[in-house]
Design a protein that fits this description.
The chain is of the alpha+beta class. It has three domains: 11-177, no CATH class; 201-494, no CATH class; 535-616, no CATH class. The chain has helices at 11-25, 29-48, 55-72, 75-91, 97-117, 122-141, 151-154, 157-177, 340-354, 360-374, 388-396, 401-414, 473-494, 498-511, 513-561, 572-579, 582-596, 602-616; strands at 201-203, 216-224, 232-242, 245-248, 253-256, 258-260, 268-274, 284-285, 287-293, 297-301, 305-309, 317-323, 376-377, 398-399, 419-426, 429-431, 436-440, 444-452, 456-460. Strands 1, 3, 4, 8, 15, 18 and 19 form a seven-stranded antiparallel β-sheet that branches. Strands 6-9-12-7-2-17-16 form a seven-stranded antiparallel β-sheet. Strand 3 (232-242) and strand 4 form a beta hairpin. Helix 16 packs antiparallel against helix 17. It is elongated, with a radius of gyration of 38 Å.
């Protein structure tokens, strides 16, 4: 009895492991690539019955894997990475029945954790084939003779592999046709902690923003006329301030899946891909002109803000058009409100800073310069005691963007200048390889907009600039490459919308229409040539077999003239044995080869011709 390797019955176990890896590490392209390489190497070694790891080394490698994973990998990646390592330890070592059970268990754990944490449609497409091959593997393990059996003859393994291939082709077609909505297969998840950002209500000094967090919120590809060193992603516009809290006005109306404010196209165009989206507000660069969501619907808020209507999931994308020209609409009277006690406390300072200036823009510039020159940025400062802004302006003189922007707005409101606070993100880490910006939780920011008659709402940022250090060296390059791979994977596989797929298909058809026409003509010509060639070959084969039969009958006529007649129902081989002539016996054997072989070799043809001539001449 041949072993399991000789019959390739271990293939279903490799397929289960492959599906588990695809589900669990599909969001980590480098790890996925390394896993596929290792899986291929293990498969090759299994075919040749070579195992570099033996039982005495398994404990050492297992312990080393646990230590490396627990101390060097991020929390959200530690479990799948650990399962991945243990799985390959099993594959690279000799296997008994219990080892195959352990391989199935590890594959199941990988697949299960991948399904829980993946929000794209890939994991759901893998559910059916995974459980199909899991069942097949359990069926194999239930056989008493496993693994010392020729399973290749016990079950039609090739039939299962063909069925799996057809299944993959079918779902590959669905993958290209259907969009990948950001839906969870299960209502719970093993995702990383959610990033924080500004919502409808902001408690100044107590927002909970983590300015040290590198948690990505979204990534964006931007093109057009924009200031690369001054990126402001507008989210929420705050109107009312009371007792240390900013409150945004309710949204105005439904906007469907897209919204456009201006008829003319914006000079800035981009697409935002969510990563760990913390808010219902869409973040748009500078002054938005239009926005279109990949899936779901939107609501338009005041100050050209846009809100998600419902929950599209954490992984979605939206296109936007923007401009740098100021916003002109929105009633400035809505942005003058201030508590009387606070107005009385702030007005003397505002008048002292502004002086006799009556122009709103000049007054705003003076207040902005005053805050930048006389106050210190400190991200660790809290709200303090009493009123948070009075404490900031007159006592601590330390704070971060929430303190600076709020103080700026309230000082201007105290002297009758319409102004408002705007929450969103500032900046972003540029990836030179993928040409996109990564905006992280630490980039959360609050700034101000001031209404200037005849010009609209102008942006002012009174917070001292603080920049994260720019990465350098090999670690930065490797990190940028990994983020680029993750971004492209999420963009084209997990967050690809129907609109993008149709657009790509149409663009490809237009761009390659002549090549497609040529390929169609070539395919038609090739099909015709193949059919003609088969027909001609069939006719040639028929003529060839007929020629050999005629030559054999001619030899029989010669033998009949000598008194040797083949009986009715007697096969050529039976007749040759009865005749007991060595030359004719050889001729009959060669006749069988050339007559029934699909492509007889040249030596057999030459031998058949020589024996034919010899028998015809009666030698």
């Amino acid at each position: 009895m041949r072993g399991i390797r000789s019959s390739l019955s271990f293939v279903p176990f490799y397929i289960c492991a492959l599906l588990g890896l695809l589900a669990s590490v599909s969001r980590m392209p480098l790890l996925l690539f390394a896993s596929l390489v290792l899986l291929g190497a293990a498969f090759s070694l299994d075919l040749r019955k070579r195992y570099p790891l033996f039982s005495k080394y398994l404990s050492f490698f297992g312990l080393l894997a646990v230590i490396l994973v627990m101390f060097l990998s991020p929390r959200t990646e530690s479990f799948p990475l650990l399962m991945d390592l243990l799985l390959f330890i099993k594959f690279f070592s000799p296997k008994k029945r219990v080892d195959y059970y352990e391989i199935l268990l590890l594959s199941f754990l990988l697949f299960f954790t991948g399904v829980l944490s993946c929000e794209g449609g890939i994991s759901s497409c893998l559910v059916l084939p995974f459980f199909y091959f899991l069942t097949l593997c359990l069926f194999l393990l239930s056989m008493p003779s496993f693994p010392a059996m020729n399973v290749g003859r016990t079950i039609a393994l090739r039939r299962h592999l063909r069925l799996f291939g057809l299944y993959l082709l079918f779902f590959a077609l669905l993958f290209l046709i259907l969009p990948r909505p950001a839906l969870r297969l299960f209502p719970f998840s093993l995702e990383q902690k959610e990033a924080s950002a500004y919502g409808d209500v902001l408690e100044v000094g107590r927002s909970g923003a983590d300015f040290n967090s590198r948690e990505p919120v979204f990534r964006a590809k931007v093109e057009g006329d924009f200031l690369r060193d001054s990126l402001y992603w507008r989210g929420v516009v705050f109107s009312f301030y009371r007792h240390g809290n900013w409150v945004a006005l309710p949204s105005q109306k439904e906007a469907g899946q897209g919204f456009r404010w201006d008829k003319e196209e914006g000079h800035i165009r981009g697409r935002v891909f969510s990563e760990n989206y913390p808010s219902e507000y869409l973040y748009l660069l500078d002054v938005p002109v239009a926005v279109f969501l990949s899936s779901g619907s939107l609501r338009a808020g005041r100050g050209r803000t846009v809100l998600l209507d419902g929950n599209p999931g954490k992984r979605f994308s939206y296109r936007f058009e923007s401009d740098r020209s100021p916003i002109e609409e929105d009633d400035p009277a809505l942005y003058l409100g201030l508590e009387p006690e606070l107005r009385e406390s702030l007005r003397p300072l505002a008048l002292a800073v502004v002086g006799t200036t009556s122009d709103p823009e000049s007054a705003a510039q003076k207040v902005c310069a005053y805050l930048l020159e006389n106050y210190t940025y400190d991200a660790e400062v809290g709200a303090g005691e009493g009123d948070v802004i009075l404490n900031f302006l007159f006592r601590s003189r330390r704070g971060y963007c929430e303190h600076f922007a709020t103080a700026f707005v309230l000082l201007l409101r105290s002297i009758g200048i319409p102004s408002r606070a705007v929450g969103g993100f500032r900046g972003g880490e540029y990836n030179p390889y993928g040409k996109f910006y990564t905006v992280r939780e630490r980039d959360a920011h609050l700034w101000a907009e001031v209404y200037v008659p005849g010009r609209g709402w102008l942006r002012f940022d009174p917070t001292p600039t603080t920049r994260a250090p720019i990465g350098k060296g090999i670690p930065f390059v490797l990190k940028s490459l990994m983020e680029m791979l993750n971004f492209e994977w999420n963009r084209y596989f997990l967050s690809y919308s129907m609109e993008e797929q149709i657009g790509l298909l149409v663009a490809a058809l237009i761009r390659w229409k002549y090549i497609l026409l040529f390929l169609l003509i070539l395919a038609f010509a090739s099909s015709y040539a193949i059919r003609y060639g088969r027909k001609k070959k069939g006719k040639a084969d028929s003529n060839r077999m007929g020629r050999f039969s005629r030559m054999y009958l001619e030899v029989l006529e010669v033998l009949e003239g000598r008194g040797f007649v083949r009986k009715a129902g007697e096969t050529p081989l039976q007749f040759a044995r009865r005749l007991r002539d060595e030359t004719f016996f050889r001729f009959t054997g060669v006749y069988y080869r050339v007559r029934y072989s699909p492509s007889p070799d040249r030596k057999s043809l030459e031998e058949f011709q020589a024996l034919y001539l010899k028998l015809k001449k009666g030698r």
